[in-house]
């Protein structure tokens, strides 16, 4: 059995591979919120003329900073700063939590001569603990310039590696940059995007189009991952457009530039989302679940998530055990009431393991075992009832997942 629990085929980001985005300034500090001497506060300063959009957790116990972000974005003012702290989620903290988050926003606003509503707060860490706002505010004078790799480190909690990605593209003859960071390792499951993620581009995008982009990108990336089936109270995905590339303004989804930018943003978001799964708490396997031939994307996602979040399936992957019964059972309880199992086919990578309602007569156990021994595995389900498809990413469950979460508050 594996004893070295590290992120699955994931390397730490290199600063040289993460170009700056014009109009974005990154600052970090050590506030000592949970662990002395580590970067735990990030401030993102934005130049005038930007647009910002976000999507957030649908957990009804959403944290105070999530509610404030939603309110500040809805106020219609131009966002000029983001402030992120780790070590404390400020969730389940009631009115006091809101006041503490507001005090941090006020302090950042006063520092840079902004309105309080122009600051978006984000928190991640332990739930039901009061936010040490005084520590965060006291750390603001010590903020120092940072690059994207350092910013990614500053938002980590149980992550073993920082997560960052970047792309460059050309829009109308103008070079455009996209760089983003994310954090997440446990309590990962939709809805919305199960983590904190911040992606910036110097492309120019109107607010209505940016609002559309952030939803579309989240649905195909951060809303397509699960580590443990638990949706966090603090999930936030923010998309920033500074407009400083000089490329033409994107104000319609019909523009070719919209699709170009969307694909590049999606590439960055998928890389970040997959990095979260690869760094899932205690993960030793990275698993892609593809479901094809459904009548709707929602139906395909239901089947994919039934497999991806099953503790029995995930522990079988950890043990490298090709336990086909667990996979078939998950498909069967996914909620597709009129599913014809005789038309269904199940594959491990390219090995057909089940068809026509049962085990493939040509399948041999050693074939499945060879696939399960790999660190990256694809489970493919062909439903045989339509043209829709969906894909989600997950990881296995190991002993280390239990240890990490048993010790989380210590």
UniProtKB/TrEMBL annotation:
**Which residues does the UniProt site feature Involved in the stabilization of negative charge on the oxyanion by the formation of the oxyanion hole point to?**
124-125
Q: Where is this protein localized, as stated in its record?
A: Cytoplasm
What residues sit in the active site? 194
Asked if the record carries the keyword Acyltransferase, the reply is yes
Q: Which reaction does it catalyse?
A: L-glutamate + acetyl-CoA = N-acetyl-L-glutamate + CoA + H(+); N(2)-acetyl-L-ornithine + L-glutamate = N-acetyl-L-glutamate + L-ornithine
UniProt key word DNA-binding: no
Enzyme Commission identifier(s): 2.3.1.35, 2.3.1.1
Pathway given for this chain reads:
Amino-acid biosynthesis; L-arginine biosynthesis; N(2)-acetyl-L-ornithine from L-glutamate: step 1/4; Amino-acid biosynthesis; L-arginine biosynthesis; L-ornithine and N-acetyl-L-glutamate from L-glutamate and N(2)-acetyl-L-ornithine (cyclic): step 1/1
- Annotated substrate binding sites: 157, 183, 194, 281, 405, 410
- State the CDD domains in the record: OAT
> What's one GO MF term for it?
L-glutamate N-acetyltransferase activity, acting on acetyl-L-ornithine as donor
Taxonomically, which superkingdom?
A: Bacteria
Q: Where is this site: Cleavage?
A: 193-194
Q: Which UniProt keywords apply?
A: Acyltransferase, Amino-acid biosynthesis, Arginine biosynthesis, Autocatalytic cleavage, Cytoplasm, Multifunctional enzyme, Transferase
Q: What is its main location?
A: cytoplasm
Q: What does this protein do?
A: Catalyzes two activities which are involved in the cyclic version of arginine biosynthesis: the synthesis of N-acetylglutamate from glutamate and acetyl-CoA as the acetyl donor, and of ornithine by transacetylation between N(2)-acetylornithine and glutamate.
Instruction: Please report which protein family the annotation says this sequence is part of.
Output: Belongs to the ArgJ family.
Q: How does it assemble?
A: Heterotetramer of two alpha and two beta chains.
What's the name of the protein?
Answer: Arginine biosynthesis bifunctional protein ArgJ
Question: Which species does this protein come from?
Answer: Pseudogulbenkiania ferrooxidans EGD-HP2
Gene label: argJ
